[in-house]
Amino acid sequence: MSWKKPPSTTLIVPTCWWWRNPYEQCAWLARGISQSGSYRSGLCVAVRAEDRHSLNPDLPREDRAVRLTGEEFETFPDRGNILVVPLPLIARGLNIVKGIRSAVRSVYLCVRPLALLNEPSEMYASINAAGMRALPASGSSDPIAALAGARDAAWERLRLLLRSANQFTSMQKSLQEEVVAGMIVDLIQLAGRARRGGTEAVLHMVDFAFHEDTWSADLDTILRRIHAKWPPEVRAQMNALYGEALNAFLSYAGIDPNEYPLTTALGGEDE
Questions:
Q1: Where is pLDDT greater, at 114 or 241?
Q2: How far is the C-alpha of 163 from the C-alpha of 141, rounded, in Å?
Q3: Pick from 18, 6, 17, 15: which is nearest to 44 by CA?
C-alpha cells in the first residue's frame, strides 16, 4: 500500500450503519494507513472512550495515530489532516470548521453500507414507512379502511423483510432502494457540512461495489429506479429540500432532473 500525504483535511469514512461495532472498520483502515511505508503523520482515528489508551492490536499505536472520541471530533483540524470515522457519527450535526468555513476538503467513502435490515431499529423504520406510504395522501372519508390498508401494507413489509436475503445484491429491489435512499440522505447532510462557507469538497466512492453492475445493484441503477418512481410533486419537494446536493447524485447516475421520464421505474417491480 503506497501512501501520499493529502494536501488538505480529509475524512475517510466507512459507511457502516448497522455494523455491530463500527469502530472496527475505522481501526482496520487506520492501521493500514499507519503501516504504509511512506506514511509520516497527521492520522486521527475515531475510538470509543474506553479505547482512548487501549492496547487493542487492531488500532494503530498512539505514536502513529491520534485517537479521538466523539466529543473531540470538532478539534480534528488542530490534531491532524486525516480522520477515519464512521459515517453515522459525522453525517448529521457535527461541524468541523476553521472560522466559518468547513475544514474538510475530501471525503472518501470506503465501504458500501451493510444492509442488515433485520436489525430492530431498521426493521421497524421500514415497516412504519410502508404503513405510512399506504395511507391516502389527501386523507380519507373512511379512516377505518385507510388504517386497515396501512396495517396490511405494514404486515406485507414485515413478511418481505423476513424472507429477504441479507446480501445486498440479492435483496428485493424496494429494500435496496431503502438502503441507498438512507445512504444518500446522510451523504447530502455530510456534503452540506463539508461545503460550509463555500468550501469546495470532493466525495470519492472507493468501494467497487458502488459501481459493480452485474446484478443491477450498483448505485447508478438504484438511483435511476428511485428517481423514476417519483411523481412531479415529490421531485419538487426533494429539490426544495436537497437542491444542488441531490442533483449532484442524480448527475452521477446520468439523470437529468428536468428530462428523465416519469412513467417507467427501471427494472420493474420486485422480483
A1: 241
A2: 35
A3: 6
Per DSSP, helices labelled H in 135-213 are 143-163, 173-194
Asked if residues 94 and 193 have their Cβ atoms less than 8 Å apart, the reply is yes
Q: How far apart are CA 134 and CA 153, in angstroms?
A: 6
* Alpha-carbon Rg for the chain in angstroms: 21
Say whether pLDDT at 5 is over 70.
Answer: no
| The pLDDT of residue 49 is above 50 | yes
CB atoms within 10 A of CB 16: 22
Task: Calculate the CA dihedral of residues 156, 214, 211, 253 and round it to 10 degrees.
Answer: -70
Please, are residues 230 and 181 in contact by the beta-carbon 8 Å criterion? no
pTM for this one?
0.73
**Lookup: cell for 35:** 503501516
